[in-house]
């Protein structure tokens, strides 16, 4: 299959796996479910104790679950996962036919295998009139004659649970030892007979269980048999990752083997979660569904933390490199034109009435502001860090017939200090991190001649809430008041310091209002 790395590969498409996939897909995670099509409850006609879906056939629930996850964008791959291995920051899952799936995280919900006692006829009737869980099948066997096949001390508790379902319960020792005096007294007090003798086979008439035939020929008439299987987790994929199934005890009796995990389903292998019967041997369908959702939530949070770490690293790298000459050269080379070619509106508004003199255009870009100023009689020094931008600006100036009124200078004003004595210093949308910004605007203020004007325009911090679509660097946005505070109080007159609104559209074409931070200050 074509390589694609999913956020999560879910191994096992039963109740736990589909529940986890649903929660992840609804969180807009890319999800692949690998399913061998072997649900543990396939022999059962109905499921129970699932609120609102009691009595639903298992296959119907799984089909509906598949349709739901596919509707949310998850994918389902039919096949048996044989092994998994670490692959960089994620995992590589190999199927039995050689196909490979890749995921950043794994949710393994492969379930368990019920290892039944070796009694002829038992397996064939499993899930019908051979049961083990009173919560799953008890109501349907109510008031029936029920024989509980003993397999250890836990069978006493099991018999008492079924006694809650029916008054006609007995225990079949199946050749095992009799219980101790205390348990025998409990059984006697509940009216539960104990039948010695080994079981030879189940006895049926047509398609109905009628009894249990003991060695020697005696038949114990029952309508149903309760067999306590040994539960063995389908743990092959997990074992390939170094996880070993461990014994699970209840009331001192080993019920089987499972993969241990914490409350969220996280295993000791980072990036691998388990849910359902592979870790909880006693989980019913409802419990498995809950386990899948719990694990999915933990996986999503783990991925969010991973995504955030990567984003922070990229964010820091972007800040560290975005103001370099190489970065700006690459940006300008990437497109024939970056800007609109029109002068900035605030410049037009604020400078249109001023007497022309000398002007410093800071970060002139492709020259639209410098050309506009020169056309109105200003002698302009246009400075930019990009030689590509300066070349375009010079071309525009020549085409407009004002090339002789503009001096283009290649400089990084974070390092190179501008000359002093300008009648106008204009800085349009020069955004830097806080400390470099303070240093730059302090130097620019010193470049203004007495009686001259400092014009600073920038994106206002309130724009971040408009989803206008520009790069999200909160520390680089500023208010006019923040720049005004950098000016000496006794040498400047603040003409304008405001958040000036203007209409715009967001990336989806909706009309919004954004604000420019506008500072107009005169040096006195």
SSE map:
Layout: E1 5-11, H1 15-26, E2 31-35, H2 58-71, E3 75-78, E4 81-87, E5 90-95, E6 100-108, E7 112-115, E8 130-131, H3 134-137, E9 146-149, H4 154-163, E10 169-172, H5 181-189, E11 194-195, E12 199-205, E13 208-214, E14 219-221, E15 224-227, E16 230-233, H6 236-240, E17 246-250, E18 253-258, E19 272-274, H7 285-321, H8 325-333, H9 345-351, E20 358-362, H10 368-375, E21 379-384, H11 387-400, E22 406-410, E23 422-428, H12 434-446, E24 448-459, H13 480-484, E25 492-505, E26 511-523
Parallel strand pairs: 1-2, 1-6, 2-3, 6-19, 8-15, 9-10, 9-15, 10-11, 16-18, 20-21, 20-23, 21-22, 23-24
Antiparallel strand pairs: 4-5, 5-6, 7-16, 12-13, 13-14, 17-18, 24-26, 25-26
Helix pairs in contact: 1-2, 1-7, 10-11
The main β sheet shows up as:
7 strands, mixed
Portion of residues within helices: 25-40%
Number of H- or I-type helical stretches: 13
Q: Structural class per helix/strand content?
A: alpha/beta
Shape: rod-shaped
Beta-strand content estimate: 25-35%
The rounded distance between the terminal residues' Cα atoms is: 73 Å
Q: What is the alpha-carbon Rg in Å?
A: 38 Å
How many strand segments?
26
- The residue ranges in which pLDDT falls below 50 over 5 or more consecutive positions are none
What does the average pLDDT come to? Answer: 95
Give your account of this protein's structure:
The chain starts with a strand and ends with a strand. It has helices spanning 15-26, 58-71, 134-137, 154-163, 181-189, 236-240, 285-321, 325-333, 345-351, 368-375, 387-400, 434-446, 480-484, and strands spanning 5-11, 31-35, 75-78, 81-87, 90-95, 100-108, 112-115, 130-131, 146-149, 169-172, 194-195, 199-205, 208-214, 219-221, 224-227, 230-233, 246-250, 253-258, 272-274, 358-362, 379-384, 406-410, 422-428, 448-459, 492-505, 511-523. The strands form five sheets. Strands 1, 2, 3, 4, 5, 6 and 19 form a seven-stranded mixed sheet that branches. Strands 22-21-20-23-24-26-25 form a seven-stranded mixed sheet. The protein is α/β, with parallel strands linked by helices and 524 residues long. The chain is rod-shaped and about 120 Å long. Strand 25 and strand 26 (511-523) form a beta hairpin.
């Amino acid at each position: 299959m074509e390589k694609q790395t999913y956020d999560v590969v879910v191994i096992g498409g039963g109740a736990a796996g589909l529940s986890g996939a649903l929660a992840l897909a609804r969180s807009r995670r890319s999800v692949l479910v690998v399913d061998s099509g072997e649900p543990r409850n396939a022999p059962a006609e109905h499921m129970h104790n699932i609120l609102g879906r009691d009595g639903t056939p298992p296959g119907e629930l799984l089909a509906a679950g598949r349709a739901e996850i596919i509707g949310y964008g998850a994918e389902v791959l039919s096949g048996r996962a044989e092994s998994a291995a670490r692959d960089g920051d994620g995992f590589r899952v190999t199927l039995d036919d050689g196909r490979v799936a890749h995921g950043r995280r794994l949710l393994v919900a492969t379930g368990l295998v019920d290892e039944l006692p070796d009694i002829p006829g038992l397996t064939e009737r499993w899930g019908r009139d051979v049961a083990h869980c009173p919560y799953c099948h008890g109501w349907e066997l109510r008031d029936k004659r029920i024989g509980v096949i003993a397999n250890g001390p836990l069978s006493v508790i099991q018999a008492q649970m079924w006694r809650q379902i029916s008054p006609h319960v007995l225990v079949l020792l199946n050749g095992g030892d009799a219980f101790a005096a205390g348990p025998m007294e409990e059984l006697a007090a509940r009216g539960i007979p104990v039948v010695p003798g080994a079981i030879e086979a189940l006895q049926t008439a047509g398609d109905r269980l009628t009894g249990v035939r003991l060695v020697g020929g005696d038949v114990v008439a029952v309508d149903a048999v309760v067999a306590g299987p040994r539960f063995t987790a389908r743990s092959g994929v997990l074992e390939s990752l170094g996880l070993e199934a461990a014994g699970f005890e209840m009331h001192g009796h080993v019920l089987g083997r499972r993969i241990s995990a914490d409350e969220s389903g996280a295993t000791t292998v980072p990036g691998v979660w388990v849910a359902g019967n592979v870790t909880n041997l006693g989980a019913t369908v409802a419990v498995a569904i809950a386990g899948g959702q719990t694990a999915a939530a933990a996986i999503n949070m783990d991925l969010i933390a991973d995504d955030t770490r990567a984003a922070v690293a990229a964010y820091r790298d972007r800040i560290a490199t975005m103001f370099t000459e190489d970065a700006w050269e690459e940006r300008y080379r990437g497109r024939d034109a970056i800007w609109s070619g029109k002068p900035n509106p605030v410049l037009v508004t604020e400078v249109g009435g001023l007497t022309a003199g000398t002007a410093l255009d800071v970060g002139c870009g492709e020259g639209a502001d410098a050309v506009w100023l020169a056309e109105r009689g200003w002698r302009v020094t246009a400075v930019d860090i990009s030689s590509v931008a300066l070349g375009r600006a010079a071309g525009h100036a020549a085409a407009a017939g004002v090339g002789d009124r503009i001096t283009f200078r290649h400089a990084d004003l974070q390092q190179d200090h501008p000359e002093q004595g300008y009648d106008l210093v204009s800085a349009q949308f020069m955004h830097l991190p806080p400390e470099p910004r303070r240093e730059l605007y302090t130097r620019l203020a010193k470049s203004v001649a007495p009686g001259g004007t400092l014009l600073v325009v920038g994106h206002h911090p309130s724009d971040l809430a408009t989803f206008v679509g520009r790069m999200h660097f909160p520390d680089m946005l500023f208010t006019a008041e923040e720049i005004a505070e950098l000016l000496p109080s006794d040498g400047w007159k603040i003409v304008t310091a405001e958040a000036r609104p203007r209409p715009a559209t967001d990336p989806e074409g909706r009309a919004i209002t954004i604000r420019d931070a506008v500072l107009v200050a005169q040096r006195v």
